[in-house]
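Figure S7 source data.
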Amino acid sequence: MTVVNAQSIDEALHALAELPEPRLVAGGTDMMVEVNFGRHKPGDVVSLRQVRELRSWHRNDDGSIFIGSGLPYKVMEEGELAMMFPALAQAARTVGSPQIRAAGTLGGNLGTCSPAGDGLPVLAALDAEVHLRSLSGERRVPFSQFMTGVKKNVARSDELITGVTIPMTVGFQGYAKVGVRNAMVIAIASACFVHDESSNSVRLALGAVAPTIVRCTEAETYLDGVLAKATPITSHELDRFKELAASAARPITDHRSTADYRRHAVTILAKRFAERAFNVV
Amino acid sequence: MSSEHYALKVNGARHEVRDSWIGESLLYVLRERLGFYGTKGACEQGECGSCTVLMDGEAVCSCLVLAATAQGAEIVTVEGLAPEGELNDVQRAFVDKGAVQCGFCTPGLIVAITHLLDNDPQPSESKIKESISGNICRCTGYGRIFDAVQQAIEVRGVNR
Ligand SMILES: Cc1cc2nc3c(=O)[nH]c(=O)nc-3n(C[C@H](O)[C@H](O)[C@H](O)COP(=O)(O)OP(=O)(O)OC[C@H]3O[C@@H](n4cnc5c(N)ncnc54)[C@H](O)[C@@H]3O)c2cc1C
Ligand code: FES
Ligand code: FES
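Tokens for the predicted FE2/S2 (inorganic) cluster complex:
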């Protein structure tokens, strides 16, 4: 048993490949809860905390943005990233508390892959790609193919999530979640809505209402059709949109909420975002 | 279980950690291995903030940091905010305003508020509330804590 404080992606990848029972840790805000409560006994730990390359973001030549997996939420809350991706900033601001946002990362959110992870609907709605790197090379997986179930994803045990690439979009975007209070709450239902002005099309992704994050493709297609008519959106059309959105959800009843309430919450979120995006009053 | 030998930098000084289990949190190591009892532990799941310390200038929950991964980081606990035997302005304000009842939440709040004021000496009311939203106090109802923050803001304004 050992702890490797990796200084570079390469060092982390070698440790992942060579140690018998490696477990990656970035901010530790998910993993340490498991450790403190005895649910996980760390074998070998590979810490990414000191890997500078993962804790930054940059603009690619094609205008898309790469966000390193180790960038804490705090950096997404305001500043340049928040101006480019308001939905990501809104999601980041809803995560836990300032202490959690100073430590927690998108890589950890992707690694845990909880359906209630606040970063994930944003990555889904913004058509992000997840970068996975191992000693044998790098592959990029669209988020829609990355998450396969509750706390399940396609990353192999020798792979490291180095970050995500998000294409730039111009137009309204928003993220909101429903929970029992304002701070420090896990979503009962969440949604990310994006209006891509260049194609005049919308994207809606839901969290916490199915085993994976879901895209509401039927609702999206419907609203795209409404937008194509270039007439003001009617309340009837909004109602149809929100019902189609809710039909994409496959919620369960658990200690946090009931399936019915989750479905109801989705209709409210979907309608509210469409109203905000298109100034329907 | 295995033991590891490593060093942490706490309040500016190097401390050796010996014979520890590799899964120990920074909270546990600070208290049980190094004797920094100012840092409190309650929930050990990031919810209460009583274990808040500064790590490389960020306020974090020490219960959520694997201690051995904090090698090389600058850690500041409540003991490190003022010279031995003295109080910093936030601590002074807590005493003056009676913002302490049982005191269990106090060190975490002092660290969080000191961190806030070091980065923003004139925070808005909503920013103050936001910045201590990760610190739970079961006794005071927060009123006197906000009074103490106001005093510290005023004192810093005068001394600037
Ligand atoms: C009090 C509290 C409140 C919280 N509130 C919220 C909330 O409101 N919303 C929310 O979404 N989450 C919340 N969380 C959960 C957590 O903070 C987030 O999921 C966060 O994004 C995890 O990031 P991390 O870097 O701390 O993860 P870590 O704990 O370091 O890692 C999490 C998992 O991902 C793996 N991993 C980490 N980095 C990588 C990588 N680069 N490549 C591959 N695998 C990797 C780890 O092996 C581990 O399995 C909360 C947690 C706590 C303790
Ligand atoms: S003990 Fe760390 S947040 Fe409660
Ligand atoms: S004074 Fe008792 S918890 Fe805050």
